[in-house]
Design brief:
By secondary structure, the chain is an alpha/beta fold. The chain folds into two domains: about 325 residues, 3-Layer(aba) Sandwich (Alkaline Phosphatase, subunit A), CATH 3.40.720; about 40 residues. The two termini are about 35 Å apart. Helices cover about 35% and strands about 15% of the residues.
């Protein structure tokens, strides 16, 4: 399946490789170790940072984080709940007391408190939000990670362009790619474990492996000459990126105990740490999942447990990316499929509420310290201009340097907009 864009603002990956070598020299570039930069950036590394391609860290809070216990607290109101609000590093801006660490880095973030979407079920909301709510054009649109992998390419690392770090099982998730084809699916890293069978068997050496891959390539070429190449292209792509992963086994080494302490010894903390390492290695799009946020019952105790884990891991990764010089090149997004109801139900829980919730961002292309959007005193409705998910897709694409209003997919000759053409970028969020 072919795909092209019109008015595309981005260079080809090979052009970035050439300019990097011209600027730094092959030896200097090869000497840089992304995992060991820390906060020390010498001039050569600074130059390399300036030429790095843009990336995405997409933090998915599955089930629905309560905006009232996080970004948009309403203490001492009918639906506000038991938690106080606390001041942040931005004068006049408060967040929930469950986010003490995040409150200290608010000047590095942008938050839109005026999110208003439509679907209040997981089955409809999750795919709609992840696809940006495109108009129905008879095709299944890609998730954001697959869209970025397609529009921006895999980059120079050779690693899979879309990696999903999550609890539970791993494997290749082609469904995310929609009409783009399975090549642009997600490689899921489950429980921090490398993909199965990534190591060569003991009875096969490197030379034999090279010969086997040469035979595979020849067979695929023969097969593709008289057939649709969509699946053989995807298979070749997966094999090639698997080869790159085989050379990067250190990505799956046990983390430094100090890093674990900083990020939190929790599933989200450990997965966020792996996500940071993937970004350092050059993965284009990294998605990190946190589960268990569907708090229909006992919402307040649940958030009292969940929010500190998010607070710690989220703050650690933003600060780490900033200290390592990566935040200028990585778009960070933290969100759910919807918020939670202001009204408290009979099980002391909050139900699904897409009508008024919040999304947080940071990094490349984002105006830091921009806290926009408002809800009424009880948090029930958006009182500012509401923003649907289509507006955010336009905003995020533009933050990555993609002109979302003029760039198109071409699907079997059919031009398709990359974002909902009834929406537009949220300029207040863009730097």
């Amino acid at each position: 399946m072919s795909r092209s864009q019109t008015n595309h603002p981005l260079c080809k990956p090979g052009e970035h490789t050439l300019s990097r070598r011209q600027l730094l020299g092959t030896g200097a570039a090869g000497a840089i170790s992304w995992g060991g930069l820390g906060g020390l950036i010498n001039p050569l590394v600074a130059d390399d940072m300036a030429t790095r391609e843009k990336q995405v860290l997409f933090i998915w809070i599955d089930g629905g984080m309560s905006q009232l216990e996080s970004w948009d607290p309403k203490p001492n109101t009918q639906f506000g709940g038991p938690f106080r609000s606390i001041p942040t590093s931005i004068p006049g801006i408060h967040v929930s007391e469950l986010m003490p660490k995040t409150s200290q880095i608010m000047h590095k973030l942008a938050v839109d408190r005026g999110v208003s979407t439509f679907d209040n079920s997981h089955s409809a909301g999750v795919p709609r939000i992840n696809r940006g709510d495109p108009k129905d054009r008879g095709v299944i649109y890609p998730y954001f990670g697959s869209a970025v992998a397609n529009l921006m390419g895999p980059g120079n690392s050779g690693l899979p362009p879309y990696v999903w770090v999550k609890p539970g099982s791993g494997g290749f998730k082609y469904q995310d790619a929609g009409f783009l084809g399975p090549k642009y699916g997600a490689l899921a890293i489950g429980e921090g474990e490398p993909p199965p069978n990534i190591l060569l068997p003991n009875n096969i050496d490197a030379q034999q492996n090279m010969e086997r891959n040469a035979l595979r390539t020849f067979a695929n070429k023969q097969y593709s000459e008289s057939r649709d190449t969509i699946f053989s292209d995807a298979q070749n792509f997966v094999f090639d990126t698997a080869q790159a992963l085989m050379q990067r086994q250190t990505l799956f080494d046990e983390p430094d105990p100090k890093d674990v302490q900083r990020y939190g010894d929790t599933p989200l903390g450990r997965d966020m740490l792996i996500g940071r390492k993937m970004l350092e290695a050059g993965v284009r799009f990294v998605k990190v999942n946190s589960y268990g946020w569907d708090t229909h019952g006992d919402n307040f105790n649940a958030h009292a447990s969940l929010m500190p884990r998010f607070d710690q891991a989220f703050t650690a990764v933003v600060e780490d990316l900033d200290e390592r010089g990566l935040l200028d090149h990585v778009l960070v997004i933290a969100m759910s499929e919807f918020g939670r109801t202001p009204r408290i139900n009979g099980h002391i829980g909050r139900d699904h509420w897409p009508e008024a919730w919040s999304i947080a961002m940071s990094g490349t292309g984002i105006k830091r310290g921009a806290i926009i959007g408002n809800t009424n005193d009880e948090g029930t409705w958006v009182t500012s201009e509401p923003h649907d998910i289509g507006h955010f897709f336009h905003t995020w694409f533009n933050a990555l340097g993609i002109d979302s209003e003029h760039t198109e997919y071409i699907n079997d000759g059919q031009p398709l907009p990359i974002a909902n053409d009834d929406c537009s970028p949220i300029r207040e969020l863009l730097s």
